[in-house]
Design a protein that fits this description.
single chain, about 110 residues, 6-stranded antiparallel beta barrel, two-stranded antiparallel sheet, 1 helix
C-alpha cells in the first residue's frame, strides 16, 4: 500500500495553517528547505503543496490606538512537503519564491 501511495496525488488539505519555524542555511537543512510546524497529526503528507504568506499587519492610529484595519496577506512562495518528521513537524522544499521566505511566515493551502 505504501508503494502505491507514493505514486498517487496527496489528498487535498482543508483549512490547515501553520508557520515556518526554521529556514535552511546549509547546515541542518539545505538552503532551499524549511521546517514547518505541521505534520502527520495535521493531515500533512509528502507531496502536499502549501503557499507561504507574510502575516497580515494590523494598522492602528498612533494617537488614539484605534484599529484601522489590516493589510492583506502577501504570498511570497510555495513549498512542497518532502518529509513528515512528527505529528507537528515536517520538512518542505521551497519550489517557488517571489519574496523573502523566513521564520514566522504563514503556510497554508493555496
Amino acid at each position: 500500500v505504501d508503494k502505491v501511495e507514493e505514486h498517487l496525488e496527496p489528498t487535498t488539505l482543508h483549512a490547515v495553517q501553520g508557520k515556518i519555524i526554521y529556514v535552511g542555511t546549509g547546515q541542518r537543512l539545505k538552503e532551499n528547505e524549511v521546517y514547518i510546524d505541521l505534520g502527520a497529526g495535521d493531515g500533512i503528507k509528502p507531496g502536499h503543496r502549501l503557499g507561504v504568506y507574510i502575516e497580515r499587519l494590523q494598522l492602528t492610529e498612533p494617537d488614539t490606538g484605534e484599529e484601522l484595519g489590516a493589510l492583506a496577506e502577501e504570498k511570497v512562495g510555495v513549498i512542497k512537503v518532502s518529509k513528515v518528521e512528527a505529528d507537528h513537524l515536517s520538512i518542505a522544499e521551497i519550489i517557488q519564491k517571489t519574496g523573502q521566505i523566513e521564520r514566522g511566515n504563514i503556510v497554508k493551502r493555496e
